[in-house]
Each structure stands twice: as structure tokens, then as C-alpha cells.
Amino acid sequence: MDTITSDMLVDDVMRRWPGTIRAFLDARFLCVGCPIGCFHTVADACREHRTDLAAFLAALNAALGKAPALANAPA
User: Fold this and answer.
1) Which NCBIfam families would you find in this protein's record (predicted)?
2) Taking a C-beta distance cutoff of 8 angstroms, is the pair 20, 68 a contact?
3) In this structure, is residue 71 part of a structural domain?
């Protein structure tokens, strides 16, 4: 199983695992559709939104069990 890490780009995470979008929305991140998502890592986004990185990574990785990775998404 894949694991989402803090150094992954926000846009790549949402494209590869669409089920994680709910975690971004639940945390009130405005990353969905944001042009900065292709430059910001998950750690950057947590810092910008003043969110605990470990807790958010746990939420993202929990979402992996609910949504399979897309075969043609960036790795």
C-alpha cells in the first residue's frame, strides 16, 4: 500500500488519490483547484493553514483505504 508523506505535492496527492480531497475539505484547506497546489507540499499546506502535520497526514493516509490510486496519475 502507498503512503502519503509530507514532501508530496498537494496536487499530486489529490490527483492520485481523489478520496483524499474530502480530508482537505474537512480540514478547511482551500487546496482543491488552487494554482499553488502544484508547488506546495503537504507540509507547506499544513504550515499555511496552521494545521498539525502529523494529524493531517494520518487523515490523508486513512483516506487511502477508501479510494484506490489512479493508474495514470503522477507518482
Assistant:
1) prismane_assoc
2) no
3) no
| Residue 52 phi, psi dihedral angles, 5° rounding | -65, 120
User: Number of structural domains, the chain?
Assistant: 1
pLDDT in tens, 35-47: 887 899 999 999 9
Q: Grid coordinates in use for 15?
A: 490527483
**Residue 1 domain-assigned (yes or no):** no
Give the pLDDT band (50/70/90) at residue 34: confident
Q: Which domain holds residue 36?
A: 10-63
Chain mean position to CA 22 = 9
Going 73 to 30 to 28 to 58, the CA torsion angle's sign is positive
